[in-house]
Amino acid sequence: MDLHWLSIDEASRRLDAREISSRELTKAVLDRIEAVDGRVGAYLSLAAESALESADAADKRRSDGERGSLLGIPVALKDVLSKRGLPTTCGSRMLESYVPPYDATVVELLDRAGAVVLGKTNMDEFAMGSSTENSAYHPTHNPWDLERVPGGSSGGSAAAVAAGEATFALGSDTGGSIRQPAALCGVVGMKPTYGRVSRFGLVAFASSLDQIGPFTRTVRDTATVLNAICGHDKRDSTSAPVDVPDFTVGLDRGVQGLRIGVPREYMPSSLDAGVRAKVEAALSAFESQGAIIERDVPLPSTEAALAVYYIIAPSEASANLARYDGVKYGFSYTQGKTMWENMEMTRGQGFGAEVKRRIMIGTYALSSGYYDAYYLKAQKVRTVIRNEFDAAFEKYDVLVSPVTPTPAFKIGEKANDPYAMYLNDVFTLPVNIAGLPGISVPAGLVDGLPVGLQVIGKPFDEEAVLRVASAFEAASGWQDQHPPL
User: Fold this and answer.
1) Which stretch of 387-396, 397-406, 474-483 has the lowest confidence by average pLDDT?
2) 153 in catalytic set
3) SS3 of 119, please?
4) Which of 27, 78, 120, 278 is flagged as catalytic?
5) Among the options 22, 172, 177, 470, which is catalytic?
6) Which of 69, 153, 239, 470 is catalytic?
7) Is residue 370 part of a domain?
8) Domain assignment present for 376
9) CATH code for the domain in which residue 114 is found
10) Is residue 86 in some structural domain?
11) Burial readout 66-90 (b: 16 or more C-beta within 10 A, e: otherwise)
């Protein structure tokens, strides 16, 4: 097998056995990037020289007797995560010259584990989008069909792993931005419970919804990365002070006797027939392994989730993005006659259309006379949605559903229809609203394009989510599938 297709687990075993070096592995991935990224567009910036230096350092640590699952393993970072000395643009012209002077907590943890940072991946501007077409620099293409989107907003990270341009990657998930591109690119992507992973050093979009998580080739690899990046961080006030288990323990316990619910609202009549067939096949696989399946689980407020999300998220974005005023850092227009004109031109030229659309929506929802009617009401419905999930989890160990209503759509197909674009996240954003853990695991191909199965768990029960996903992965036989790139 080519080194660029190795999973974390396989690569780590070969590194331990001295069959390969981290430099060889990193060089193979960098060569793959050079060969295919001109067509895929997964990266915004590369750090090839420092990556090879980090690989040499990892090889030295191994020669000194150190062992570690991520030691010497190449990783790509979504360009919303701060990495000292590397540009962090958030896919925006507003931050095109910004180089952070510090590392995000997850980057610190990966560095401590010995992972090799390859570079920063493309994304929808400030994580606002579902297709990675909203990047200010270039779109990212789906490795399975270069005319189609990879999903978003973490499309660059998903495409990098799918195309063999990274052994694993990190992304952020505010309304499905890890799970949706993972599904469309045929890789594993997980959003942990809100508060499970520190957000320190993550450039904020919607602070009560954002969560960092991994893209990997296998469920076991996802568990391995979670072992490294989860944990309480005093620098993040929303970081949960809860114990972190070894997520790799129990992956192979199977689903015998587990109660799996299928939400009625996540299997609508409008669901693509191919996607429906893959979900039904997954349910049959679970049943054959001894799980107890119950369909038509009611989550009646799901139909309000899209509206709730597109009030809360833009409102928080409006507040978070107010800091980009052309004064403190980032792009600055200085040709105006007044401070206010400079600020207006800075924001007008620095932000793209989708970001400006969401800022306007959020500012309106928070404005005097509309706060109670929109934002406050959305927060109340958010509580109802969370309570419905809590009630469901009194009966079921996990819930399963599609990740997306359809396979990947063509680039440009929905670019001028924001509502159609927003509907791509209809099955994922309720999980963020409720702060739950959720994973996308490849469910097979529909018309030659990957689709994903979503497994949703109780708060801080990533172990059950990973266990169920692992059982399905073992039955699906997907692990050796790669795009024809």
Assistant:
1) 474-483
2) yes
3) strand
4) 78
5) 177
6) 153
7) no
8) no
9) 3.90.1300.10
10) yes
11) eebbbbbbbbbbbbbbbbeebbbbb
